[in-house]
Amino acid sequence: MAAGLSSGAFAADLIVNEPAPAVGVVDVGGNWDGPYVGVFAGYGWGVADHTSQNPGNDLDLSGWLVGATVGANFTVGSGLVVGVVGDAAWSNITGEDSFMISDISHTIDWMATLRGKVGFDGGAFMPYLTAGLAVAGATRDAKSFDSDTQTHVGWTAGAGVEFAATEQMSINLEYLYADLGEREYDTGGIPPTIHLTTNQVRLGLNWHF
Questions:
Q1: Per residue in 45-97, pLDDT tens?
Q2: Per-residue b/e over 128-166, b at no fewer than 16 CB within 10 Å?
Q3: 18-31 per-position pLDDT tens digit
Q4: What number is the average pLDDT over the span 199-207?
Q5: How far is 118 from 81, CA to CA, in rounded Å?
Q6: Based on the number of CB atoms within 10 Å of its own CB, is 54 exposed (0-12), middle (13-18) or buried (19 or more)?
């Protein structure tokens, strides 16, 4: 009996003295730090606004774009990620119409941006806001007269969300609005001043290092 009691007490000591498992803090942050490169495709639409003459000759623009991007992200606080990104894209965002004197077309041939980003680290996803410089090359073709190409410089702003697909790969969906400013096009006759604005929706794939 004494041996049994002693054995039971010893077993009770083992149960009581067994340390509780440690409770750790779960890290829900993602691995968004570092440089990355990517490719994207999207759809754009906008307006070639005649600001100097014949406001009724404004052209609605639409078309596709495809390009490449390079950037880097930096975690600066709990859940806060900042970054910088640059991209360049070929596009055929264009519009055309027939006026009394000539058929007119206006095409955005290429676009590039240099932007800052501020995002929230949600672990497997990162929503963000972005804004910065926008540059575009556009061609105006007055088919009965001449064509002219100009470079527009303006600004862009938008928002997006990036989803982690693997440890090194992410899917990026974003919207950008761009005000590309005014340029004068010499296509014969009185040169019109054109103010370009665009909207873009892009879907991209990024590789992180």
A1: 999 998 766 556 688 999 999 999 999 999 998 899 999 999 999 999 999 87
A2: bebbbebbbebbbbbeeeeebebebebebebbbebebee
A3: 554 444 433 445 68
A4: 98
A5: 6
A6: exposed
| DSSP secondary structure letters along the chain | -HHHHHHHHHHHHHHHHSPPPP-PPP-------EEEEEEEEEEEEEEEEE-SS-GGG-EEEEEEEEEEEEEEEEEEETTEEEEEEEEEEEEEEEEEEE-SS-EEEEEEEEEEEEEEEEEE--SSEEEEEEEEEEEEEEEEEETTS-EEEEEEEEEEEEEEEEEESSSSEEEEEEEEEEEEEEEE--SSSSPPEEEEEEEEEEEEEEEE-
Model confidence, pTM: 0.82
